[in-house]
Amino acid sequence: MTKMISLEEARELVLSRVTPLEAETVDLLDAAGRVAAADLKSDIDVSPFAHAAMDGYAVRRCDLAGATAESPITLEVIDEVPAGGVFEGTPQAGQCVRIMTGAALPGCFDAVVKYEIVSMVEGDGKPGGRVAFSAQPKERDNVREAGEEARAGEIVVNKGEAITTAGVGFLAGCGVLRVSVYRKPRVAIIPIGSELVPPSENPGPGHIRNSNSYALAACAKAAGCEADMFDIVPDDEAALEAAVREAAATHDFVVTSGGASNGDFDFIKPVVERAGELLMTTVNMRPGKAQTFGIVDGTPVFGLPGNPAAAYMGFELIIRAGLLKMQGRTAFEHPTIVAKLTCDKKKKDPRRLFMRATLSHGESGELLVTPAKNQSSGLFGPIQKTNCMAVLPEGAQDAHAGDEIACVLLDVAEGTVI
Fold first, then answer.
1. How many CB atoms are closer than 10 A to CB 48?
2. How far, in Å, CA of 210 to CA of 319, rounded?
3. What is the value of pTM for the model shown?
């Protein structure tokens, strides 16, 4: 029998047996949330020209030397340059050009003065009028330089970097419309249990609806994967082995739920051991002690418990890390914060306890955490209605109101700085 290991050991074990998948090329819009599998370069300088950072007047600083509020200097407005337009004239001393945000800055000018601090002397500030300036601007004031964001040929997104929604816009400006990214893992979800019926059916005596498959498939999709839900497998060892072998041959990762303990009808452990390599059977956590992990035909297979909360915790805290690594990610742990417990909690089980709980702010702004009243591992509802997992460490020591405890934020992306 494989010994019980810690959560950290379980996660590292899974991570040690998976590698990033091969690359595929996708349209830029489909690259959001994916990890670049190659360096991405800009084909031009971004921006390709110096341009005005705001609406105002393009000026030569030398024309405004000595300007003050008491002694402003007046310039003639000779043209107006909208975004997309170009000024091709040659200004004389004492002349300026009205310019719009994003418009190319004529090379003969070296600063832009924003519209709001310029006074109208003659006309409405447009060509033919005269405007007054009360100070000399700094050199290149309110100018965005050519190549400020990227230079032609420069790497703008590195291999291994996750592409954000803003990154999609950045790459579009750099002319990158097809992107090499790591392929999404295909995850097979196999529900085990003769008591299960599809959610479309009203369960009869002794039966329950198969809710785990939907939750685990949703977890897989939230982790960036493609998920396929297999048909319910009854408590039959031969049928389970056939389903696992089929899934392992067609998918990148196999997840089963149910049949992970030591009962007479719990078969995932012997199936993995016979069909491949059994690496793990129990983890020192609650809920989620009975967790099976191994390799079948080169494919990772993970057997989760049948209890919904236990299955959910195993996926989020262990399986998810492996799936992220397969997509080229490098951060694998959800962020943790510390909050004050609002009530006493007795702890008799020595395993690390993950309590479904809610974070809130107290009257003085301190962070508080309140465990849900019902901590049954057989329920999804308390997870839906809470926003963190409050953690009590290994050992049988009770916790008391006012104690500071760690809280795992499962809805916050790995690597986020809190």
1. 12
2. 20
3. 0.90
DSSP for 391-404? EE-SSS--B-TT-E
Query: Which residues in the chain are classed under CATH 2.170.190.11?
Result: 51-144
Q: How many CA atoms lie within 13 A of 10 on its CB side?
A: 30
Residues composing the chain: 418
Highest CATH level, class, for 336-408: mainly beta
Do residues 291 and 243 touch, judged by C-beta distance below 8 A? no
Query: Residue 145's CB: how many other CB atoms inside 10 A?
Result: 14
CA distance linking residue 40 with residue 175, whole number of Å: 10
- Beta-strand pair 388-392/404-408: antiparallel
pLDDT digits (tens, 9 = 90+) for 103-158: 999 999 999 999 999 999 999 999 999 999 999 999 999 999 999 999 999 999 99
Does the structural domain 24-46+151-182 have CATH classification 3.40.50.1970? no
What tens digit of pLDDT does each residue of 261-302 get?
888 778 999 999 999 999 999 999 999 999 999 999 999 999
Under CATH, to which class is 51-144 assigned?
mainly beta
